[in-house]
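Incident review: delayed structure delivery

Summary: a single-chain prediction request sat in the queue longer than the usual turnaround. Root cause was a stuck worker, restarted by the on-call engineer. No data loss occurred. The affected request and its eventual output are reproduced below so the record is complete for anyone auditing the incident later.

Affected input:
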Amino acid sequence: MTLDDVARRAGVSTATVSRVLNDAPSVRPATRSRVLKAVTDLNYLPNEHARTLAGGRSRVLGLLVSNIENPFFLDIYHALEDAARTLAHEVVVASTGYVPEHLASSIQHMRARRLAGIAVIVSEIDADLAGQLVHSGMPTVFYDAPRLDRMPPNIAADYRTGMHRCVEYLRGLGHRRLAFVGHHTSLYPLNARQAHFVEIVAKARPALEYRIETSDDSPEGGRLATRALLASGFRPTAIVCVNDFMAIGVVRELLDQGLGVPRDVSVTGFDNIGLSSYTSPRLTTLDIPRARIGTTMCDLLVPEAPGHTGRPTDIVITPELIVRESTGVARS
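Output delivered after worker restart:
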């Protein structure tokens, strides 16, 4: 089925069919209805790529994430997809595995598709790759991107405030030996979470002691980091995790080693993914509103979106501490 078939069925030119499919305003309502009825009757599926090449506007958004297995990224994807669908847009996603080469390749593939816009939520982004997107002219929105001279919209989390709330909360419970479990700590914003933890705890030394352990971004990575931490001889009364995904594994390893949570060791996460309220014990964490991030990204990329302003916007999110059952008073 081709554009010509639709035009013959509707009794109009192919140019008119093209204008209707591209939502051009210069088509009379009666003609538009006739064309759309022909499209439905013939079950015509327009070639989106060909329409874009021919000057039509794409209705596909791209999303780049570091680890689609981590529910943090998955939640944002679902929110972006839901918002985009209400505006007749679709979302394609690429997961880079924190590998800069994979990110560079994914950026090139998405640019070649001439998408309507790209949302970027990757820790391995650097100024050069971010600059490629900015200078390509494609609408782009970042989450926690490095600063550029010509900065597109960026959504950022205030990790210093969030980590300060977490550490001070644990100090108030009497915790004096703290550990931090992270991953890919050379990458921002993961490094920012660890750096702010160290900064806050170091200011309180010698009253506070701390140790750092890292592994993979997964529950298994959390288990391995906890195993290494305990094997080192350091005995924390609380473990602060870079995210909830690793914290789930941290809790599991502590319990498997016969330690009570929070009786012997308190555990905190970061992100407040849905699973954090279903673990046993339920996880104390810092909330990053993924649904808000996904919806805001759609608003910034799609001109028809109700929240679209047409102006570059920086949005700062302050993480809120969510206290649940995985933290308690430090054991003396």
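Verification: Residues 158 and 310 are 24 Å apart (CA to CA).
Action items: add queue-age alerting; document worker restart procedure.
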